[in-house]
Specification:
The structure is a single chain. By secondary structure, the chain is mainly beta. It is globular. Strands 2, 3, 4, 5, 6, 7, 8, 9, 10 and 13 form a 10-stranded mixed β-sheet that branches. The chain is 3% helix and 45% strand.
């Protein structure tokens, strides 16, 4: 990345196992300022999706205790979807299952976490476009294999995780506009009221940025506000709005660096070179002015893989 854009002291790498784990890829990021519009980054939340032998585990959230000067610690939490099922006595019992989502972008607003379901196809599926989780409802479960209620009727397992965060509801895409792919989300505080900015990844056509205002009582308004269209060929991985300017993280395949661009004009301008496999983007407006992003790739090929060891970091740059 461009040295003049790096923000000193605003970076960390995962523990060795997570840094090289091919079964999980980090995707989305959000932090305190998104949540309340005032607090500096002390807690970072990062989403990951499962691959390969871990595919049935769905997606997880990492809660990072961030410090610019002290130790950085974190814990993984499995994202789950609650449901009811009948037991041997034909009585309905609570159960949980893994969330089958890519979790390509996340946004913390108030007590809720909004997760993009980027596998959603509006015309051919009933899957939701945005899933919502309540950050007041982390649950501790027993460590053990598999997922769901265990035969004793009281114990829950979650693929070996000690904590789970259940989904509470979701939003479906509807309307007459071209189907929208919910690739990433961020909190936008530049308008008269805060809203959720949804960005779309696409390799053809013109990807869009669409904004849904938050309701005062919580949740999203049903009517979206059109935000902007991104020129064809720009592979958007994350988007935020700072003042009147949209900033985008854009990828360039699995062998070439990504870029930070701004979309103040008709064509996004190159601002900074980023890591290979750059992903989501957030803005800390509490004072640092940091744009946080992260990389997804571990060393998937071998010692000659040019993506490693420079891709799977969490770091901040200047706008």
């Amino acid at each position: 990345m461009s040295p003049q854009r790096r923000l000193a002291g605003h970076a960390f790498r995962w523990d060795p196992n997570d840094f090289a784990d091919k079964r999980w890829r980090p995707q989305g990021i959000t932090q305190d300022y998104d949540g309340d519009g005032a607090s500096p980054a002390k807690t970072l939340l990062v989403s990951w999706y499962a691959r390969g032998s871990a595919r049935d585990q769905g997606a997880r959230l990492t809660v990072v205790n961030w410090s610019q000067t002290g130790a950085i610690t974190y814990r993984h939490v499995l994202l789950v979807e609650p449901f009811s099922e009948r037991d041997d006595q034909d009585e309905l019992r609570d159960a949980i299952g893994a969330t089958d989502i890519h979790a390509g972008g996340i946004a913390w607003y108030g007590d809720h976490l909004y997760v993009a379901d980027s596998g959603y196809l509006a015309a051919g599926s009933m899957r939701v476009g945005i899933r919502v989780f309540d950050l007041r409802r982390f649950f501790k479960v027993a460590r053990g294999r598999g997922i769901g209620r265990q035969p004793d009727g009281r114990t829950f397992h979650a693929h070996g995780y000690e904590y789970v965060l259940p989904q509470i509801y979701g939003y479906n895409w509807s309307g007459s506009a071209r189907d929208l792919t919910f690739s990433q989300v961020s909190v936008d505080r530049t308008a008269s009221g805060p809203g959720l900015l949804v960005s779309e990844y696409a390799t053809d056509g013109r990807p869009r940025l669409v904004r849904w205002p938050f309701r005062t009582a919580g949740g999203l308004r049903a009517q979206a506000e059109w935000a902007a269209a991104v020129p064809q060929g720009v592979r958007t991985q994350g988007a935020v709005k700072v003042g009147s300017t949209y900033y985008l993280t854009t990828s360039n395949g699995s062998r070439r660096p990504g870029a930070l661009r701004d979309a103040a004009g008709a064509a996004p301008r190159h601002r900074s070179r980023l890591n290979i496999g750059c992903e989501d983007l957030i803005y800390d407006g509490s004072g640092s002015g940091a744009l946080w992003t992260l990389g997804e790739y571990a060393n998937d090929v071998g010692a000659d893989d040019p993506r490693a060891p420079f891709s799977r970091y969490v770091y901040a740059v200047r706008p």
